[in-house]
Design goal:
The protein is of the alpha+beta class. It contains 20 helices and 18 strands. It has a five-stranded mixed beta sheet, with helices on both faces. Strands 5-6-7 form a three-stranded antiparallel beta sheet. Strands 1-2 form a two-stranded antiparallel sheet.
């Protein structure tokens, strides 16, 4: 029977190389596994069945001289010690050895080999260079800082690299694995006496960098730990725990957000101050957004937007415990924000809000020097609802055909008045004449007036459903058009201000503050800052995308409400440069020895407002009391 050595790359056979002995694998299971780990054969591993290992042989070329028992009698086949393990995986060159001159196994082991076996050599080269096959140059394009590329590696593929020493190529005899969140560390020792420690990511002052980056990547993109944990569990990815995540968030992430947001806000205010010195007083618009609809909201963000560039200038967070009710949070946030902006030296000329009576009172009594304008969007929306209600009455169906035209005329009247209140009111009062097909008329003072549209053709007049002055529908429409409050409010809409861009920001805010999830007071504040930085970075510098030929890109969108196709611009993708600035600040905070982990106050650079108390709730009963009550309830139900 011809014996063949099972060591990969070894060509020793009983009929080819004389003087080489062959030894079977140990019967002891633990020792046999050590042999298999050292041999690292792709065909036979530790999980190979015992029956398949009985006839396998390892030649004496892979053992050291001290692995053999003394042989004073000169037996042909030397015996191995019970503790012997294959340790030599080098083979002599074919030119260095002739048949019949290799000697015993000791001589073969003692001869200095000149090349590593193919399997060992390929593994050693892969572990030593760690360069991709497509890039022959060493370390080309590889970054050593936090922005370098990260790769998800299967645990089996990773640990397969720790079978041979990178220094001498000999098998690794022992290794210890340590896991710290998303980082893995391996401490190893080889049979050649070398040892070392390998880490999957560098440390930042003793903390794994990947742990800090994982927490930062989740928060700065508007995610939550629950989403991260669910994804990692599904993928089987090792990740930090919830307590570590929230400690990193409080100690390093939140202070970094406050620092970067404060710097960007200061730069924006400085620019507004320079424009103010040139005689351009700022125009602002404001609107509130609660964390849940109705009168059960806990938090309210009141945001101030610069009307000229649509940048967010300031935001105020109010908790319901600070106000008398949920409805009082928005006026409180507005008052705080206005006082803060004015105290910093800002000379606001125009402030545009919705028609909230509370805010009207605040503006009238506390800020009379600021011109108060109403949002046209909210006014038109309210007028449309009232007109739809009138049109649903029996006999008033004709009003539904005029709904869109009348609302559009409100937008037209405000948009073309250019601050002239009298011109706005005159255009609005054209409705009673236009709806009855009168396009030229004389008022009580003898002045001639006419509609601003072009003369209608006979066909256009026939297609239109005109109202009659003696109809109920006409009277209902006039009751809305000449409503005293509406006519009074129109005087504050001559500058054509609207908070539509703020509504768009509130929609984008859902990425960072979804209403279906609850956050702490600090979480609500910092996530709002993230949304503002994201908005300000893209709202001004974002440009329209172009085709390969340089033409602006557009798309057609069907509006379900108007039943029309609308052409919209296609913009370039959003940028997130602010995230890079935030992460750099986080790494800087971690490297600062004065900032203590799990102590958020050590990293705060700005004075913090007093945290409002939580909503009062009864004290929780002791566990023993809960058990007693549950048993009593079960006994009462059993008696019944």
């Amino acid at each position: 029977m011809v014996c063949t050595c099972i060591v990969p790359g070894c060509s020793a056979r009983t009929r080819k190389i004389h003087g080489v002995s062959f030894h079977g694998l140990p019967k002891e299971l633990d020792l046999c596994k050590k042999w298999l780990r050292a041999i690292n054969s792709p065909k036979f591993g530790e999980d190979t069945a015992i029956e398949a290992l009985k006839n396998l042989k390892v030649c004496s070329l892979h053992f050291k001289p001290e692995d053999f028992e003394p042989n004073p009698l000169g037996a042909k086949r030397p015996a191995l010690l019970k503790t012997a393990i294959p340790a030599i995986f080098t083979l002599p060159d074919d030119d260095d050895e002739e048949p019949g001159t290799s000697g015993t196994s000791s001589a073969g082991s003692a001869s200095c080999a000149k090349r590593i076996c193919l399997e060992c050599r390929s593994s050693y080269q892969l572990e030593s260079t760690l360069t991709p096959t497509s890039s022959p140059s060493e370390d080309e394009g590889v970054k050593e800082d936090w922005s370098g590329k990260k790769i998800i590696v299967n645990e089996f593929s990773l640990m397969s690299l720790f079978k041979f020493c990178q220094m001498c190529g000999k098998p690794i005899s022992s290794k210890t694995v340590y896991d710290a969140g998303a980082q893995r560390s391996v401490k190893w020792t080889c049979l050649g006496g070398h040892s070392g420690t390998w880490k999957s990511s560098p440390d930042v002052r003793g903390m794994p960098e990947v742990n800090v980056l994982s927490a930062a990547a989740v928060l700065f993109r508007g995610g939550t730990y629950t989403e991260l944990s669910d994804w990692c569990q599904t993928m089987g990815v090792q990740m930090i725990g919830s307590s570590t995540f929230y400690n990193i968030q409080k100690t390093y992430l939140h202070p970094a957000i406050e620092h970067v947001y404060t710097e960007q806000r200061s730069a924006l205010l400085a620019r507004v101050y320079l424009e103010q010195m040139d005689g351009k007083r700022p125009h602002l618009s404001g609107d509130g957004r609660c964390d849940s609809p109705g009168f059960n909201a806990k938090y309210c963000h009141y945001t101030f937007m610069l009307d000229s560039t649509k940048e967010i200038l300031h935001t105020e967070l109010v908790q319901c415990t600070e106000a008398t009710s949920s409805g009082a949070m928005e006026p409180m946030g507005f008052r705080r924000g206005m006082n803060d902006l004015l105290d910093t030296g800002l000379d606001v000329e125009v402030m545009a809000t919705d028609r909230s009576t509370s805010i009207q009172k605040i503006m009238r009594e506390e800020f009379p020097h600021v011109q108060h304008e109403f949002d046209i969007w909210h006014t038109a929306k309210g007028f449309r609802k009232k007109l739809l209600i009138k049109g649903k009455k029996k006999g008033n169906e004709i009003l539904l055909s005029w709904n869109r035209s009348v609302v559009n005329h409100m937008w037209f009247s405000c948009g073309t008045s250019k601050g002239d209140i009298e011109a706005l009111q005159n255009r609005w009062k054209c409705i009673p004449h236009h709806v009855v097909n009168e396009h030229q008329w004389t008022d009580k003072d003898g002045k001639r007036h006419h509609c601003d549209h072009a003369p209608l053709t006979p066909e256009e007049q026939k297609r239109r459903m005109w109202l009659k002055k003696d109809s109920v529908a006409y009277q209902d429409l006039m009751s809305l058009v000449f409503d005293k409050r509406l006519l009074k409010d129109l005087q504050k809409m001559a500058l054509f201000k609207h908070t539509g861009p703020l509504e768009i920001f509130h929609s984008a805010l859902l990425k960072y503050l979804p209403k279906r999830q609850a956050f702490s007071y600090e979480g609500m504040r910092e996530r709002a800052y993230l949304a503002i930085m994201d908005h300000n970075e893209n709202i001004v510098a974002r440009e329209q995308a172009t085709t390969a030929t340089g033409e602006p890109r557009v798309k057609q969108v069907f509006c379900k409400k108007s039943k029309q196709w609308i052409v919209k611009k296609i913009y370039k993708p959003h940028t997130t440069k602010f995230i890079q600035t935030l992460i750099e600040k986080v790494i800087e905070n971690r490297r600062n020895p004065n900032i203590t982990f799990k102590d958020p106050t050590s990293s705060l650079t700005q004075p913090q407002p007093p945290l409002p108390p939580n909503i009062a709730r009864p004290e929780a009963a002791k566990k023993s009391c809960n058990v007693h009550h549950s048993r009593a309830a079960s006994e009462m139900s059993a008696l019944q």
